[in-house]
Amino acid sequence: DGGITQSPKYLFRKEGQNVTLSCEQNLNHDAMYWYRQDPGQGLRLIYYSQIVNDFQKGDIAEGYSVSREKKESFPLTVTSAQKNPTAFYLCASSIGHLGDYSGALEQFFGPGTRLTVL
Amino acid sequence: KNQVEQSPQSLIILEGKNCTLQCNYTVSPFSNLRWYKQDTGRGPVSLTIMTFSENTKSNGRYTATLDADTKQSSLHITASQLSDSASYICVVTAPYSSASKIIFGSGTRLSIRP
């Protein structure tokens, strides 16, 4: 089955800890994205990557870090510098970066990880 | 500032009834507009994608319309089913924008009652 997976589904973090959220895709997509979703708000872009070994900050990158060592994987680390990390985190992928295409490029989402700070 | 506004915020209808969700945007120029369905605690799933030159797109009981002149889109759900209970998200892509290029609305939460 082709798709995009995230793990874990639920994650609990103590204050001051760093945690890493996993995102894997086998769709052979170049572009991958991390979003944060809070109640009553639209998805907000944390980081995106258009190609291996390259990534760009999104609108709310402070307190987060990413890596893109393999095409299939785009892990997100929530650091202790992120003051309000409790949220639902969504990973997505597309063949190319949506911002660079004028056509109807599809973006696929993973099932999400719910992070709670204790 | 590029924005996507959805209305209503929430909606409750009886099973079998039709409903229409609205999306107004200020993004200009834009390349495409998408509607997603998001079940509680899950990732969004694409329903329709329309480029700026398309007026309507259907996917089963879901029909999306787009009026690029008034910058409005709607999602019409016909003969609603209990499984339609979800949040519906409107997303506009603006590839030539200097700001965020993919703008998400905050969604409409739809509840279908038996």
Overview of this structure, please?
- The complex is a heterodimer of chains A (about 120) and B (about 110).
- Chain A is an all-beta fold.
- In chain A, about 0% of the residues lie in helices and about 45% in strands.
- Chain A contains no helices and eleven strands.
- In chain A, strands 2, 4, 5, 6, 9, 10 and 11 form a seven-stranded mixed beta sheet that branches. Chain A has a four-stranded antiparallel beta sheet with strand order 1-3-8-7, with no helix packed on it.
- In chain A, strand 5 (about 45-50) and strand 6 (about 55) form a beta hairpin.
- The relative contact order of chain A is 0.32.
- The mean pLDDT of chain A is about 90.
- With about 110 residues, chain B is mostly beta strands.
- Helix content of chain B is about 0%, strand content about 55%.
- Chain B has strands spanning about 5, 10-15, 20-25, 30-40, 45-50, 55-60, 60-65, 70-75, 85-95, 100-105, 110-114.
- In chain B, strands 2, 4, 5, 9, 10 and 11 form a six-stranded mixed beta sheet that branches. Chain B has a five-stranded antiparallel beta sheet with strand order 1-3-8-7-6, with no helix packed on it.
- In chain B, strand 7 and strand 8 (about 70-75) form a beta hairpin.
- Chain B is globular and about 45 Å long.
- The interface of A and B includes residues 40, 43, 98, 107 and 110 of A.
- C-alpha termini separation of chain A: 35 Å
Could you give the count of β-strands of chain B? 11
Nearest-integer average pLDDT of chain B: 91
Query: Tell me about the biggest sheet of chain A?
Result: 7 strands, mixed
Helicity level of chain A, as a percent range? under 10%
Oligomer category: heterodimer
The SSE order of chain A reads EEEEEEEEEEE
Principal-axis shape of chain B equals: globular
Strand content of chain B: over 45%
Strand content of chain A: over 45%
Using only CA atoms, what is the Rg of chain A? 14 Å
Order of helices and strands of chain B: EEEEEEEEEEE
Q: What is the straight-line distance between the termini of chain B? A: 41 Å
Most extensive interface between two protein chains, with residue counts: A-B, 29 and 28 residues
* Strand elements of chain A, count: 11
* Percent helix of chain B: under 10%
Please identify the structural class of chain A as seen in this structure.
Answer: mainly beta
Which stretches of chain B are poorly predicted, pLDDT < 50 over at least 5 residues?
none
Structural class based on helices, strands and sheet pairing of chain B? mainly beta
Regions with little confidence, pLDDT below 50 for 5+ residues of chain A: none
Described by the principal axes of the CA atoms, the overall outline of chain A is globular
